[in-house]
Amino acid sequence: MELRHLRYFQVLAETLNFTRAAERLHIAQPPLSRQIQQLEEELGVVLLERGRPLRLTEAGRYFYEHSHTLLNQLATVCDNTRRIGAGQKTWMGIGFAPSTLYGVLPELIRRLRSDEQLDLELGLSEMTTLQQVQALKAGRIDIGFGRIRIDDPAIHQRILTEDRLVAALPAGHPLLVGPATLAQLAREPFVLYPGNPRPSYADHILALFAAHGLSINVAQWTNEMQTAIGLVGAGIGITLVPASVQLLHRVDIGYTTLLESNATSPIILSRRVGDVTPSLTHCLSLIDELLVSR
């Protein structure tokens, strides 16, 4: 399937007339008919009822609505690409681990998007810290917000904050009276995340217990924090999350604080060594402002 198939179908769906569609597309009618037939053959469905008048089938209506959205998105991407190439707009890629959305990141995004003078086009990508490092080195993102320390000479990391960890427990769990110790939590089955890629936040949690001479029984691995919290609510086990996640209110789980003062998880900013672009410099200054105001 090629873009021309989508564009031809869009015009035909809007005109519902092969002759008028061919005129708008500046092609002859027979080639247009062949292109639409090729599209139907590739999809394996009939998109048009070829009667008088021409009508869209149910599949055709669905394909028109969604391909119309795709073409509009592509037009926006092409327009922004031209503006970025002409120096009229700046693109910035931001990678983030989901749990960092409870820190300074949301306000940073709001400020960057509202800065008309900078005119940034933001690309937001959910990634683990390891994926962020790979994306930074490949040039796919410009800055990352994660929770794992990575030793890589090409990447500069900076700890923004240290979040206290709390235990997420099923509603009614006896440890909810808290605070709890790591030794008490180690007796419970755990839901740990993410399972892949490694090293990850999971390794940070395992290392925390190991530093206190403890090990945990992982009853379930999952790749997403939200999934882990959902499984806690289902009674599969417990998990540790940054304290800022308590903003997420659910009736089937509760949170309890930990007695150990070193039970923390950092929010770590990662960027390429030597990157001094104006947009990144501005972004870093905004982060400093937000940290001071907290």
Give the end-to-end Cα distance, rounded to a whole number of Å: 51 Å
CATH superfamily of the largest domain: Periplasmic binding protein-like II
The CATH architecture category of the largest domain equals 3-Layer(aba) Sandwich
Structural class: alpha/beta
- Give helix and strand order, one letter per element, not per position: HHHEEHEHEHEEHEHEHEEEH
Total number of distinct structural domains: 3
Proportion of residues in helical segments = 40-55%
**CATH fold type of the largest domain:** D-Maltodextrin-Binding Protein, domain 2
CATH first level of the largest domain: which class?
Answer: Alpha Beta
| Radius of gyration of CA atoms, rounded to a whole number | 26 Å
| Stretches with pLDDT under 50, minimum 5 residues | none
Strand % is 15-25%
Number of strands: 11
**Tertiary shape:** elongated
Largest sheet: 7 strands, mixed
Mean pLDDT, as a whole number?
88
Q: Give me the number of helical elements.
A: 10
Can you walk me through this structure?
This protein is α/β, with parallel strands linked by helices. The chain folds into three domains: 83 residues, Orthogonal Bundle (Arc Repressor Mutant, subunit A); 94 residues, Periplasmic binding protein-like II (D-Maltodextrin-Binding Protein, domain 2, 3-Layer(aba) Sandwich); 106 residues, 3-Layer(aba) Sandwich (D-Maltodextrin-Binding Protein, domain 2). 42% of the residues lie in helices and 22% in strands. Strands 3, 4, 5, 6, 9, 10 and 11 form a seven-stranded mixed sheet that branches. It has a two-stranded antiparallel ribbon with strand order 1-2. Strands 7-8 form a two-stranded parallel ribbon. Strand 7, helix 8 and strand 8 form a beta-alpha-beta unit.
